[in-house]
Amino acid sequence: MNDNRTPEESSAVERAGDVERNACAALRDSETGLILCAPRHGGPIMSRLRVLFGRTQRDFEQGFITNKFDRFVNRQEAHIIAKAAGQIRYRCGGDEDTLYSENLY
Fold first, then answer.
1. pLDDT (tens digit, 9 = 90+) per residue, 70-100?
2. Fewest CB atoms within 10 Å of the CB: 4, 38, 52, 84?
């Protein structure tokens, strides 16, 4: 639990039941910390964003953004969150401890 929340953030968390969930696929630039978000890591939206910022797939760590105030988590932590929140709807190969957007939708 984050004790540095604004009153508005605290209220939003209370209304949401304080359940952390994965909101969307994200890439975090290893040099700048820039985070790009889109429905899929390798989808056309994410590809266009990478080109727009002049970066390649290798420049980024793959993960997810959660509903906890834009918190970036890697694929392994995202899997733990998704499992606890009941978000895993589909299975795909290699997803025993790693989350893929295909697991969610």
1. 899 999 999 999 999 999 998 998 888 999 9
2. 4
Structure tokens at 102: 């295909």
The half-sphere exposure of 18 on its side-chain side, counting CA atoms within 13 A, is 6
Q: What angle do CA 10, 39, 34 make, to 5 degrees?
A: 65
pTM above 0.70, yes or no: yes
Domain membership of residue 66 as a residue range: 20-104
Query: What's the pLDDT tens digit per position in 92-103?
Result: 988 889 999 999
Q: Is residue 72 part of a domain?
A: yes
The C-alpha atoms of residue 7 and residue 89 are separated, in whole angstroms, by 33
